[in-house]
Specification:
By secondary structure, the chain is an alpha+beta fold. The chain is built from five helices and nine strands. The protein has a single domain, classed as Sandwich (Jelly Rolls), CATH 2.60.120.620. It is 19% helix and 17% strand. A six-stranded antiparallel beta sheet has the order 1-7-4-9-3-2. A three-stranded antiparallel beta sheet has the order 6-5-8, with no helix packed on it. The radius of gyration is 17 Å and the shape is globular. Bound molecules: 2-oxoglutaric acid. 2-oxoglutaric acid binds next to β3 and β9.
Length: 270
């Protein structure tokens, strides 16, 4: 489903199946520049605790702003706002470099539905769209290089493999799973409840991608803020760990295009 799919068609796909692909969010002649820039920043600021065979940088916006103008590509942002209501917030910006030989990941749903996180909506959770995961294909996504595995329709389950109550083992493939291929510059938009996993990279090339997640204005993100009292209390009461999303540095925020700023305003450092 591409740039020419109507918003209604994309929303139906997202509601019924839990995902859609928005094409040409980054134009074909600009995506290589963004890929090389994100790759360089990730290599420079690589998280030391990233899993083997994966280059990872959370809080990417602090290290690289080359992708920022594309967050407001109209035919992309329209989908996000139609699903979550307006105004929306960016909750996570992460770079993910899946190197040659990277193994298949485990099937999971994302924050705030992943039951391994301190901040999670307990399963069984309600059937509402509360968070979107968008995976930006900076390399073309193919079955060979590890295109994301999804289980269409699984967002309408009230649980996921991270929950003790779920009978499906997170390491087992699911019979109806499929991989989402796409051209570089396309974005896979998923309901964060949807069961998904990284595919195995059986090529010689790295698969370069970003995970940019979006929240509606009403979702509490404070548990992700390093040093916040709410985060400390959540981790203490659940005994679980939580992702950390570093605040957007003031000078980074000041340099963002004016129309992009509202997406990050809630997370600027105090
Ligand atoms: O790398 C992928 O294809 C999947 C990434 C993923 O599972 C995630 O960001 O939650």
């Amino acid at each position: 489903m591409g740039q020419n799919a109507t918003l209604d068609e994309q929303m139906l796909h997202l509601k019924l199946d839990g995902w859609c692909v928005v094409e040409n969010v980054i134009p074909a002649d600009e995506v290589e520049g963004v890929r090389e820039s994100v790759l360089a920043s990730t290599l420079k600021h690589q998280r030391s605790d990233a899993p083997a065979q994966i280059g990872h940088r959370t809080g990417l916006i602090n290290y690289n702003q080359s992708f920022a103008p594309y967050l407001i590509t109209p035919h992309f942002l329209d989908v996000i706002e139609a699903a979550l209501g307006s105004p929306v917030r960016v909750s996570f910006t992460s770079a993910m470099i899946n190197y040659s030989g990277n193994a298949r990941g485990n099937l999971h749903a994302d924050w705030p539905f992943n039951q391994h996180n301190a901040g999670h909506i307990p399963a069984p959770y309600p059937d509402i769209v509360a968070h979107l995961t968008t995976l930006w294909m900076l390399s073309p996504y193919t079955p060979e290089n590890g295109a994301t595995i999804i289980v269409p329709g699984s967002h309408r389950m009230e649980t996921n493999p991270s929950a003790d109550s779920c009978s499906h083992d997170e390491n087992d493939p699911y019979p109806t799973e499929t991989q989402v291929s796409g051209a570089a510059g396309s974005v896979l938009v998923m309901d964060s409840r949807m069961w998904h996993a990284a595919g195995a990279n059986r090529t010689e090339e790295a698969r370069v991608a970003m995970a940019i997640r979006f929240a509606p204005w009403w979702l509490n993100l404070n548990g992700l803020r390093p040093g916040s009292g709410e985060r400390a209390r959540l981790m203490k009461t659940t005994g679980l760990n939580e992702n950390e999303v570093e605040a957007v540095r003031k000078e980074v925020y000041a340099g963002l295009p004016p129309a992009v700023k509202p997406l990050f305003e809630h997370w600027v450092e105090h």
